Amino acid sequence: MLFSILRGASGIEIAILFLARLFVVFCTLPVHEYAHAFVADKLGDKTARLSGRLTLNPMAHIDILGAIMILFVGFGYAKPVPVNPRNFKNPKKEMAFTALAGPFSNILMAVVFMLLSNVLSLFGSSLFVQAFYVFFSFAASINIGLAVFNLIPIPPLDGSRVLELLIPDKYYYKFAQYERYIVIVIFGLIVFGVLDAPLAFLQNHLYSALNYIVSLPFRAFKG
Fold first, then answer.
1. What does the pLDDT read at residue 166?
2. DSSP assignment of 63-118, as one string?
3. Residues 203/147, Cβ–Cβ less than 8 Å
4. Could you tell me which residue, 223 or 12, shows the higher pLDDT?
5. Three-state DSSP class for 188?
6. What is the rounded distance in angstroms from the CA atom of residue 94 to the CA atom of residue 159?
7. Which one in 9, 77, 88, 127 has a CA-CA gap of 20 to 30 Å to 71?
8. Residue 151 CB contacts under 8 Å (≥ 6 apart), including other chains
9. pLDDT tens-digit readout, 76-108
10. What are phi and psi of 90, to 5 degrees?
11. Residues marked as catalytic
12. Angle made by CA atoms 124, 120, 217, in degrees to the nearest 5
């Protein structure tokens, strides 16, 4: 994925892309993990709070390998927030809500960045405006990518908790037994670019749909 970006972008765009990815690692990944911790805490599980994860401090959440993947591949992860489902009244359902909080926060942040890029588009086309427009567009796209990636229904990604809610326990537990092998396979597929096309397809279509909706109020000003 990195090499396809390098082939199709200017030096300035590449620099802005990496700045956007750094911004995501240090500013929006912590929001993703905080969302997990916040929802779990509100639903009755204090594990994340007691583990020091109910915070926006990036140093509490950053995983070095996951951060490097975001910088160079575009998809990655942070340290999983510890959650004890036994503290929930309805463990499967509330685990699904806790898991979905992370990707939902990414989509919410993407909408905010799309709003900012649309606001900037009203202020002409100076180099300064264009640089920030591209930055916020990249930040929105990366957040959409993280949401899509985390919603893959494979352990240990957030989507697996939704899968757990939808299929019988005996099938999910059998599936989860192979989690360590699945992680290695997914990591390999990402590194070698096998997942680039399907993930980019979903990312681009979700980005286009959200950006179309967000940009509707601004079209009157541009027209």
1. 82
2. -HHHHHHHHHTS----PPPP--GGGSSSHHHHHHHHHHHHHHHHHHHHHHHHHHHH
3. no
4. 12
5. helix
6. 13
7. 127
8. 103, 157, 158, 159, 162
9. 788 989 999 999 999 999 999 999 999 999 999
10. -125, 85
11. 33
12. 105
